Amino acid sequence: MKIGNIELGNRPLFLAPMEDVTDPSFRFICKTFGADMVYTEFISSDGLIRDAGKSVEKLKINDAERPVGIQIYGHLVDTMVEAAKIAASAKPDLIDINFGCPVKKIANRGAGSGMMREPEKMVEITRRTVEAVDIPVTVKTRLGWDENSLIICELAEKLQDAGAAALTIHGRTRNQLYKGEADWTLIGKVKSDSKIKIPVIGNGDIDSPEKAKAQFDAHGVDAIMIGRATFGRPWIFKNVRHFLDTNELLPEPDVNERVRIARLHFEKSVEVKGERVGVMEMRRHLSCYFKNLPDFKETRLKLVTENSPQKVLELLDYIEKRWGIH
Fold this sequence. Notes:
The protein has helices spanning 24-32, 45-49, 53-57, 77-88, 104-107, 119-132, 152-161, 185-192, 209-219, 236-246, 255-273, 275-286, 297-303, 309-323; strands at 2-3, 6-7, 13-15, 38-39, 43-44, 68-73, 94-99, 137-142, 167-170, 200-203, 223-226. It starts with a strand and ends with a helix. The chain is an alpha/beta fold. The strands form two sheets. Strands 3, 4, 5, 6, 7, 8, 9, 10 and 11 form a nine-stranded parallel beta sheet that branches. A two-stranded antiparallel sheet has the order 1-2. The protein folds into two domains: 7-246, Aldolase class I (TIM Barrel, Alpha-Beta Barrel); 255-323, Non-ribosomal Peptide Synthetase Peptidyl Carrier Protein, Chain A (Orthogonal Bundle). Helix 4 (77-88) packs parallel to helix 6 and helix 6 (119-132) packs parallel to helix 7 (152-161). 44% of the residues lie in helices and 13% in strands. The protein contains 14 helices and eleven strands.
């Protein structure tokens, strides 16, 4: 599979762009486990235009992450075009347009999946962005605004004609948010449309190697994007790849291995963001690495409140000693 000139191999696995999750340290960890494509957190076009610190900070990428995409969102055509130019100056491998975020404060002002109510504007933003930058522009979106407006099949062709180099489809409507089950049938319908020549990437509810293989086999998508199932499980990319290649399931990492991974992730976060921010932003990840451990509540509370990097590392050592294999 290729996006523009980016060679991604057969049945590649993508890390979904997620706010407050896919920062440089998490992208690094997912890459080490075989994610074929990673993305930044989504970035506000307004923030980039205003040179807002938080938005500009999210543009930071490094060569170890490649191929890496920068994802932007917004609802104004000219602002999105200018933001794409700024993002392109950071030298990503592609620009991705977020037409899929269902969060109320974003969708209700017409950005993210709010764009599903203005499909012609989606097409215009895509076309203008493609014209403005010299790297591939891709689009991530949903099936429609609600079950009465499932527009993805006709929209996909229009986005392709506007120059989108690939299309990622989350198998839910905006109104579903993340509730219920993702519906992959319409994703498969887009992929099987003979008019669609660009890669189609499926997204939604992939949380195991078996589900990934089933959706590849059933719907013929070019790639699969994994989101929430990566929380505390960046090794899911390795496990899915192994299953796709061998039809054999790898065991989940034991506590000792999870401590090793969490420590590596934590140290990378502190290296990239400094001690204070690095510790704070790892809290959402650390407890996820150790879900379902018995009698873990007290230790979990310490993990998500500790401010000292050294104390966090000591807690990880304690977890290994108490719950690990010796």
